[in-house]
# Entry
Amino acid sequence: MRIPDPLKRLDARILPPIAAVFARLGRGARRVRIVRIAAVVISLVVVLVAVYAAGRPGSRTYGPVGVVVKLGVPEGGSIPQYIADSKAQLDQLVASSAGAGKQTRYYALVSMSTYLTPAALATTLDGLDRLQITDTIMRVRSNQQTEIIQLPVTTVPDDVIQGMTKTAARKQIEVADDAELQKKVTGSTVTDRMQRAQYKQEEAIASLEASSYRALCPCVYAAVVYATPAVLGVLAARPEVRVVEARQLNFPGLAVFLPPFPDQKATAEPPPSSG
# Structure
């Protein structure tokens, strides 16, 4: 049985001083009584430390510091090239895993060819063996910069609906905040007018987002899934799917997902700034 490190450190701190005390004690009943008391105290401390050590959760593995894996298209990247490369990689995975007894499962960024409602997303992912969904990525379609939201999910469409409802409530609070900020800027300088216009525009965008998510909008344009190459190949062939990029991720929490917007065809770019 391996002795926990806390117990080793406890022995190193407690036992030498106790031994020194015993060496200074005389023989006889007094020493016996002290030894008995010390034994009880040490036993109690050891038990408490053991319980504490056993009850502590194991240390979580976060992966190498500074290592970030990116899936998708970085700003300024070529979308057609990304689609071609991802398709070629997935085809190779499907071919190499064909006929294998136990297939390895991969994480995959699934970029959609259009914006989907929660119900449409459920239909797109339906009927695929052992496919797990971990995240959806959504935004309200607009020519302004609406917030890109990565929503952790396990069930579709229920978790997506719940996430949209919560997002709508958060956006409604932003609407009220922006309206209040406009009232506080009462000056007539150029800076004041620009600031009021900025708050007004942000209020309009937040209002659009709130109403869209409340109505369970077609806003989902990507998903992160976990499945075998064979299943990913079937998913990639569905009409709602634009491309599937599969990766083996040792530390999924370090991954950054950059799916292209469905309405962008050439280069990955942000929409015009709301500023």
